[in-house]
Amino acid sequence: MGTNILTMTSHNFELDCKRIHDSLRGLSQLIPSLACLTQLERQQLRETYKAVYGEDLISHLQGYEEDVYSSMNMKCSALSLWMLDPHDRDAFVAREALQQDETNFKALVEIFVGRKSSHVLLITQAYHKRFKRQLDQDIVNLDPPHPFQKILLALAASHKAHQVDVSHHISKCDARRLYETGEGSLGAVDEAVVLEILSKRSIPQLKRTFLSYKHIYGHDYTKSIKRGKYGQFGKALMMVVKCICNPAHYYSKALYTNIKGETKDTGILARTLVSRAEVDMNEIRKVFKEKYEKELVDVICEGIPSGDYRDFLVALATKI
What we know:
One of its GO terms (molecular function) is calcium ion binding. This protein is mainly α.
């Protein structure tokens, strides 16, 4: 705690605010230092900006997003996400995902799978405060219906009802139930059984269940999904299971395919680096190097044109 106080005391937030407020050039020059700020320091910067200029720093950055130059738009959009408190950021990402022509279910799954239950509660509260809407209900009301809806609602329920402790006994029982309704069944998978398990277990408990599945049956649950009669529900379930079981592998692949232009989710690069920078970026870099035999930073530099936006992404990708 003492380190943060010393850092904040020595940092001239008023000068940074002036440079951000006065010109795009001033903002560009600050990109490296802004990417290095801790969450506490980013909050202090926003408070200083509000006190000096009577405007929220996020609103100021979002004003730049209307710039005709796409690089400026992307840079300010990423900076806006970075400056937001984590639960406000996720509420904003969730709303944006729901408002797209094709709902961005991946972004929603990443929120419900990658956050603690206490954080998900803050997200739903922030979502309601900011948008005057209920996140769960907005997912329910999506049209046309999609298999992801059922899974997301089950995951939302799990954050409200799960037990804190992870039980090995429950994981074995749930693994057997998944087998009996999947590859151990002659008919189509019973989605209700899968959704019941998803809705009643915590993310750590579900991860333990999938580990038990592999231990008992000799292969990953994802392999069972591939060769079972899961239909479209299976495609959605596959992504969720991968995100739960090995998030570093999931995010490494997401980053690589986005940089290489192999995905329609154009926001995943900034979204992933911003949301994981202070969580598990070390692990993501390690897995990325093992999987693609290249450093994440090198791939970013190869795939993104030089400039402030790339510098910002590189700074996030190298955070410890």
